[in-house]
């Protein structure tokens, strides 16, 4: 027996002496042994439970610290009192720096208010013991994480209440959710989409697929895309397509498919195979675009490319195409055709004065009239602006008969285009100039033919407009192409080949009052070239500015000379001004400079402007005219009556003269209406107190009519043609001689 056992037995005996009386000492010893064993067992149980406690505590710590969710305990006043490792790693801040920090400090700005409201409500409302919500938190480095928060309010007896938070990082889910949303939007795009499994059984289709094919998702789910087959492609085609997909993972092409209603339509199809991460094929994704519409668009594009939008007539490109065919067919059949180039006279004036909208209506009407008179097989095309081309085919094998037939058509065109046009602003008269060239398909170049017709048209314009001219080789030589003309004009300037001619302006008794300066080109080969043959070309470039300046200087020098001679000192000199020249910013200064250099009386200089020039920009015109009028320069309105002489602007312009256009004068005694126009112009000029002069006076009867109708001044061949200065001065001498006699 151990000492401890003995002493414990003695203790028991001393406390309980009856034991001695009842039990023998052996029994007592046994009892004590049993008791000792019991005690040892109790000890062992205690140790074991202690050990179990430690294990479970360790497990708790492991579970708490290394849990995949963050755990935070927050005191009632919002401070972090406890936080596990996961939560501190989620927030990216050391645990030591988190304890006693305010939790709201880590809530994203956008969610802070919400957090405070939630925290408050969970503390105040005992029914809200548990709460779930999503919240954006800010990490230590400033980056944001999306979290799911689970909040638990705990009130433990004798302790301050606290809030336990469980925190799960849901950033990845959020991102995936956004991507899914985008994918869903993309899936529901304008293109039809179809997703199949690896065996090409349809899994999903989008709304556009249904719109294009007519099949809903329910109708096609599990089916093969072959239900869309139209039968227009061969099996070989599909085999090739699948081979392409298997080899490259992609196929793209156009294909005929069939809609649910049986309609066959063209479709642009792409098919991509989709593999999983391991590389196994999982799906096919197809996009389909209905290109039926695009075919309509292609038609529209064709229409725009080959037809003139305004009139609907074939454009230059289509004309050239047809001309090429016509040449080939004419070459085969031996039948001659005719090419007519039609340009409207004075169209620019209509556009400038009545506006483009009215100009457009006129062009449409012209187109309609042309189409109405030619045969169905002939072509009427618009090249642009007021230029039309008519191509007559298969006329005759005889060139003379073909030309006669063409002439008959041009006569009809002249007649029909001369008929009045009813435009929005009233009735309007327009005339065409027509150039013709014939073709027989033998060694003829298209562009050359068109140029020939153009040259002939130009000749028609030159010869008085509203007429027809057939191209002949002589015309070709008389009019070189524009590029060559340009070079020639530059040489003309350098070599001083320009000359001013002077045409007398006089009273009915032949009393000279002045002259108009008219430019001539003394060409070393072509002889005297009229301004109509080069001024329009010079106006296309800045050459007109140099030429205009030369004319102005020469005219003012001439005035200076005239001032010094009593015979000519009262003469005025009219100078034509081009639009481009007048529109220069410093036009006024240029005129002033010439006047100052020559020191002449400015009132002797008369600048001739046309109506279309004035109307291009009335405000600018008025400013410049007034500036020059101030120093005495005079202005005459040239070719008056051909444009749209509107009283409204006429009264605003500081004009000193109106020139009745020769087109009206020519028709005195021929067309009554032109005589009325002349009388009206004279009456109007009188009431506005503007001087009036008639140009192109060729006959005595024209002069007499003008005199009877109170037009005091004339210019025309009846008095004198435009002549060189020597001849003009001789004319003055003769006049004085006549008077002295
Ligand atoms: P315009 O200013 O109307 O000049 C009148 C035209 O009529 C001149 O033609 C003149 O020779 C012609 N003419 C005069 N009387 C008669 C007649 O009785 N019968 C006929 N059939 N014709 C007559 P020209 O000289 O060929 O000039 C043509 C146009 O060229 C001028 O028309 C003018 O617009 C322009 N032009 C002439 N010289 C110049 C110039 O120096 N500068 C500018 N910018 N243009 C000029
Ligand atoms: Mg003139
Ligand atoms: Mg004129």
Give the strand line-up of the largest sheet: 18-19-21-22-23-24-25-26
The structural class is: alpha+beta
Helix content: 40-55%
Small molecules (ligands, ions, cofactors) in the structure? ligand C2E, magnesium ion
Overall pLDDT confidence: 88
Dominant shape: elongated
Q: Quick one: CATH superfamily of the largest domain? A: EAL domain
Whole-number count of domains? 5
CATH class of the largest domain: Alpha Beta
Task: Summarize this structure briefly.
The protein is α+β, with helices and mostly antiparallel strands and 741 residues long. The chain is 47% helix and 24% strand. The strands form five sheets. The chain has an eight-stranded mixed barrel, surrounded by five helices. The protein has a five-stranded antiparallel sheet with strand order 2-1-5-4-3, sandwiched between helices. Strands 7-6-10-9-8 form a five-stranded antiparallel sheet.
Descriptors for this entry?
741 residues; alpha+beta; Beta-Lactamase; 28 helices; binds ligand C2E
Describe this structure in words.
The protein has 741 residues and is of the alpha+beta class. It folds into five domains: 1-65; 66-169, 2-Layer Sandwich (Beta-Lactamase); 174-299, PAS domain (Beta-Lactamase); 307-471, Reverse transcriptase/Diguanylate cyclase domain (Alpha-Beta Plaits), CATH 3.30.70; 499-740, EAL domain (TIM Barrel). Helix content is 47%, strand content 24%. It is built from 28 helices and 26 strands. The strands form five sheets. Strands 18-19-21-22-23-24-25-26 form an eight-stranded mixed β-barrel, surrounded by five helices. A hairpin with a 2-residue loop joins strand 14 (421-423) and strand 15 (426-428). The chain starts with a helix and ends with a helix. The structure holds ligand C2E and magnesium ion (2 copies).
């Amino acid at each position: 027996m151990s000492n401890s056992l003995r002493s414990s037995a003695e203790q028991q005996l001393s406390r309980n002496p009856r034991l001695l009386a009842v039990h023998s000492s052996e029994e007592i010893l046994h009892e004590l042994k049993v008791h000792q064993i019991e005690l040892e067992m109790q000890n062992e149980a205690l140790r074991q439970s202690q050990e179990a406690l430690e294990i479970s505590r360790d497990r708790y710590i492991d579970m708490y610290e290394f849990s995949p969710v963050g755990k935070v305990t927050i005191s009632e006043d919002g401070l972090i009192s406890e936080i596990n490792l996961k939560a501190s790693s989620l927030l990216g801040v050391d645990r030591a720096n988190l304890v006693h920090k305010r939790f709201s400090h880590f809530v994203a700005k956008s969610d802070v208010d919400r957090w405070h409201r939630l925290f408050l409500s969970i503390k105040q409302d005992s029914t809200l013991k548990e709460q779930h919500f999503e919240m954006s938190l800010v990490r230590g480095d400033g980056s944001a994480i999306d979290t799911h928060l689970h909040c638990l309010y705990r009130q433990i007896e004798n302790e301050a209440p606290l809030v336990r938070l469980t925190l799960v990082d849901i950033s990845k889910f959020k991102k995936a959710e956004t991507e899914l949303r985008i994918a869903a939007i993309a899936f529901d795009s304008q293109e039809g989409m179809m997703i199949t499994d690896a065996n090409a059984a349809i899994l999903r289709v989008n709304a556009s697929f249904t719109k294009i094919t007519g099949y809903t998702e329910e109708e096609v789910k599990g089916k093969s895309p072959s239900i869309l087959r139209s039968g227009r492609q061969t099996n070989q085609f599909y085999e090739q397509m699948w081979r392409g997909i298997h080899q490259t993972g992609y196929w793209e092409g156009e294909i005929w498919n069939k809609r649910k209603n049986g309609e066959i339509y063209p479709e642009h199809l792409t098919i991509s195979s989709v593999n999983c991460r391991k590389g196994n094929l999982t799906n096919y994704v197809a996009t389909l675009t209905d290109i039926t519409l695009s075919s309509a668009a292609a038609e529209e594009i064709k229409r725009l490319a080959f037809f003139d939008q305004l009139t609907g007539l074939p454009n230059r490109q289509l004309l050239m195409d047809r001309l090429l065919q016509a040449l080939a067919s004419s070459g085969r059949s031996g039948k001659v055709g005719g090419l007519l180039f039609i340009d409207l006279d004075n169209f620019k004036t209509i556009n400038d004065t009545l506006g483009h909208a009215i100009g457009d209506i006129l062009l449409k009407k012209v187109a309609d009239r042309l189409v109405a008179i030619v045969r169905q097989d002939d072509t009427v095309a618009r090249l642009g602006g007021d230029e039309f081309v008519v191509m007559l085919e298969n006329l005759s094998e005889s060139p003379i008969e073909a030309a006669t037939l063409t002439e008959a058509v041009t006569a009809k065109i002249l007649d029909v285009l001369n008929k009045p046009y009813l435009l929005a602003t009233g009735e309007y008269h327009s005339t065409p100039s027509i150039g013709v060239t014939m073709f027989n398909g033998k060694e003829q170049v298209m562009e050359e033919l068109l140029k020939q017709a153009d040259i002939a048209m130009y000749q028609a314009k030159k010869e008085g407009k509203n007429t027809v001219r057939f191209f002949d080789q002589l015309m070709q030589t008389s009019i070189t192409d524009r590029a060559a003309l340009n070079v020639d004009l530059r040489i003309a300037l350098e070599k001083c080949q320009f000359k001013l001619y002077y045409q007398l302006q006089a009273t009915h008794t032949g009393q000279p009052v002045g002259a108009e300066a008219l430019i001539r080109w003394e060409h070393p080969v072509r002889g005297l070239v009229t301004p109509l043959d080069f001024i329009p070309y010079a106006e296309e470039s800045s050459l007109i500015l140099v030429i205009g300046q030369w004319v102005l200087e020469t005219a003012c020098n001439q005035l200076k000379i005239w001032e010094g001679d009593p015979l000519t000192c009262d003469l005025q000199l009219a100078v034509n001004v081009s639009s481009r020249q007048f529109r220069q910013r410093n036009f006024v200064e240029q005129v002033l400079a010439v006047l100052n250099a020559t020191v002449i009386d400015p009132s002797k200089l008369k600048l001739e402007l046309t109506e279309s020039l004035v109307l291009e920009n009335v405000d600018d015109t008025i400013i410049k005219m007034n500036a020059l009028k101030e120093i005495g320069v005079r202005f005459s309105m040239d070719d008056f009556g051909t444009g749209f002489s509107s009283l409204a602007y006429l009264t605003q312009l500081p004009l000193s003269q109106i020139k009745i256009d020769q087109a009206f004068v020519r028709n005195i005694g021929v067309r009554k209406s032109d005589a009325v126009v002349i009388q009206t112009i004279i009456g109007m000029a009188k009431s506005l107190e503007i001087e009036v002069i008639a140009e192109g006076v060729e006959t005595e009867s024209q002069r007499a009519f003008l005199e009877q109708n109170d037009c005091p001044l004339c210019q025309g061949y009846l008095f004198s043609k435009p002549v060189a200065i020597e001849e003009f001065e001789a004319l003055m001498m003769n006049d004085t001689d006549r008077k002295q006699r």
